[in-house]
Amino acid sequence: MTQITPIKGFTNTPVTQSICVIITLLALSLSILQLKHIVRLAIDPYIVEYSQYWRIFTFQASVINESDYLLVVFLWFHFKNIERFYGSRRYLSVITIFAVYNAVVCFIVMCIGQLVSYYAVYVLKTLLLHRSSNIVYQSLLFNEVIPGPQGIISSLYICYGTYVPVSYHFKILLSNPMNSDQDQEQQSTSSSSKELNLTNHFPIHIIYTLLLLNNGTRSLIPCLVGLLLGKLHVYELLPGSKNWMINIYVFRFFVDPTKFVTTTISSIGLRLRSGYQSLNSSRDQGQPIQQAEFLPAEVEGEDVEEIVEDGRQQATQIRAETPVRPLGSQFLDTFRN
């Protein structure tokens, strides 16, 4: 029987683990070093006056307040199921695509919204109040967004609801339970407004709603843009999100930088010590050509994917032999994980 209970921790989810560690380190570093202004994005003054366009791609790097950090890390941890669905390398590729699209589209929406809002206010002042004033740029609703990966999480939120199946449903009664047969008949004929139908996804919906409303209007723009991009990705209408894959060496470095650097240095050292031998000279001497010991470090991306897939199949087989726990334990695991 296939196990449907959640797996604790970061089992087979190295990308999720790396993201949680990076977000924690960045948030602490920016707070300790007082560099939170680096990840802020505002049309005025950073773009209009200072022309700091690099902020378009850095404002999603880290959050700047504690409440956003807790909500973001909680959602990243629960989105590990999406990584199990996609695979680690594919999951990191999707996150990269969402990050680029959210940065560009969010900046365009901010620029257009700021201009439209400003000229709407100017027209209202001129036509209704009959005030003729010079055009002066002002900071309005679309001027600034909250720093953090809210847009990426919003896109993954759509993927979570689409690709992660519902394990169970349950109801919460909003009225006192009835014991007699007559009361039960009345209860069955009563409207469904007295009960609340929920699934095991309801903690994700609640936490995401808190993240959406946590910073007022500053968090609405990236979240709404992320939801739109997530819908386009689900319907396979987002260019590049279906076939593009991140480089295998970038993926290895992101997942385990220490192992990647150690393997690379050892491979370079072996090459420098052993040197290169001509293929023709080896044949002339009648010596068999031996493969280098560091060959596994240079396996192509497809071979790596096959090895990872074999490991996943073995893990799935082990999970299939584990008995399914009762529904009550599954319900408690929803809050523990």
TrEMBL record:
SUPFAM superfamilies: Rhomboid-like. It is found in: Membrane. Its main location: membrane. The chain crosses the membrane at residues 15-35, 56-79, 91-124. InterPro entries: Rhomboid-like_sf (IPR035952). It is a multi-pass membrane protein. Keywords: Membrane, Transmembrane, Transmembrane helix. One of its GO terms (cellular component) is membrane. This is Uncharacterized protein. It comes from Scheffersomyces stipitis (strain ATCC 58785 / CBS 6054 / NBRC 10063 / NRRL Y-11545).
